[in-house]
Amino acid sequence: MCDYMRKNIEQQEKRCVKNVSAIHDDVLQQIASGNVQPRPRWHFVLRNLLLWLSGIILLLVGAASVSVVIFLVQGHAWEMREVFGMSGPTFLLQIFPFMWLLAYVVFLFTAESFIRKTRGIYRYSPFLLSLVILIVSIFVGLFFYALKISDHLDAQLGKHVPRIYQTLDQRRNYLMHRPEGGRVMGVVQAVAGTRFDLQHPRSRKTLLVDFASLPPQKRSLIVVGEKVLCLGKWNQIQDVFEASDVLSPPPKRRKDLRMR
Amino acid sequence: MVETSDFTVASDEDLARISLRDPEAFGVLMQRYEGKLLHYIMRKSSVTREGAEDILQESFLKAYRNLNSFNDRLSFSSWVYRIVHNETVSQWRKASVRPEGHAIPIDDEFVDRLIAEDDVELGVDRDILQSHVSQILIHMDEKYRDVLILRFMEDKSYSEISDIIKKPPGTVATYISRAKKQFHKFVAQQRSEIINDV
Fold this sequence. Notes:
A: about 260 residues, CATH 2.40.50.140, 2 domains, five-stranded mixed beta barrel, 5 strands, B: Rna Polymerase Sigma Factor, Chain: A, Arc Repressor Mutant, subunit A
């Protein structure tokens, strides 16, 4: 900036100074009277620490969401993809736990906003910060998955908040239980001759299944209290599902949810 | 260690540290900055002079209350400008008004500096444009107007602006670039109006 410009600015500022001595005096007076005191240093240190801590906790929760997503996708009955006659991407879309993905995004976004408020972080590019948080959360999520934290989390949620958790899992139930689509899933209730009652785990509705055309070696799977997945054809007129095959439910899913 | 008698030659950062045990040092800091900051508030907002003085007083009180949060990673100037910046924005929000006019005229060199840095011909006589700068600034987005004021009126570096508005230096550079484009756009829009005025 040239000298002339600097001088001009200084002159304008001096004009302002003439009228602000009252502010100066008033502030000093308030300080002298003890009405205004500096906040202790620990207040700021603690605030910064809490912001970091909150950000890191949210990041870990986000990472836990990643581990559960991996667990649910990995643990799904991929071998049934062909039974359902679906392509890989279609099957993935059907089973993908989008609610967990949403939870992951929310936790990550909140973690980022907390970390951004910590001292000095604003100097870093938001894109870079988000990328670092994303990469860290995925790596920690993989680590959690390897430690089987995801299994435990999935089991605990299924046990303590079954209604909410199964609502989130509804698409999977829908995938497995579609009489008009040639598949029904449920718990065997009572066997009489070549027919048994199959109770759907969520709706508790009972459907009559006829297994007369089932190969003898498969009939051993039909045990009262066990969960089965039946493939076949739904006879709407007689309101009976004619099973041509019976399978055990997805083997890798945790047991209590499978059986519910 | 700076003694009381050395206040006038002490750096702002030293004075900020001394202010915790000797409020007179804070008085010296206020004297150093009150003119600049009052000017800045009035450039940035539409408040009256009395309103600007209220904001300045509240900002100084906040600065004193938060002296322990000041650290050497920032210059005192950037730190106190940030407090004033936030306080001014906060007062706008409380009043729920958008600035409608600058309380003091824009300094004469603003346009010169803007043109000099950008090497752009605005296509309007400089003196005529000068009288319309306030109106153009008012219509600009707040974030762009802020960086233009800090860069071309307060003569702050990109790094200082980054510390004042708490955005990365890269973002500041982007804002300044966009602010110049927006300024040029408004000048182009107002050109016919300016010519008619003449």
